[in-house]
Design brief:
Length: about 100
């Protein structure tokens, strides 16, 4: 019973890694297309290029992975604790 939270967090991290792979494969191409479109529109309007504070490689890698894993761990732990609470109550009731 004392391992509910770590198990839920681990499951959330696994789900987050799958979500990261999905976002990296299917989402990043759309983001790159929209960035290219905005750059083209800025060139047509003769606007100067804006400097990148964080490179696209970092944004698409660690910048995407970090929050997804953090949210996955948090939601996995919360879900496991909330779904495990009735089980813990039944075990405690049966033992008394």
């Amino acid at each position: 019973m004392d391992r509910l939270l770590p198990r839920g967090m681990f499951a959330g991290i696994l789900a987050a890694l799958l979500a990261f792979l999905f976002a990296r494969i299917f989402g990043e191409s759309q983001v790159n297309l929209s960035i290219a479109y905005e750059a083209h529109q800025a060139a047509l309007a003769h606007e100067p290029a804006e400097p990148e504070l964080v490179s696209r490689a970092v944004q698409a890698g660690w910048g995407l992975l970090t929050p997804i894993v953090m949210y996955g761990a948090a939601y996995g732990g919360l879900f496991r604790c909330s779904s495990g609470a009735p089980m813990v109550a039944r075990v405690l009731e049966a033992s008394s």
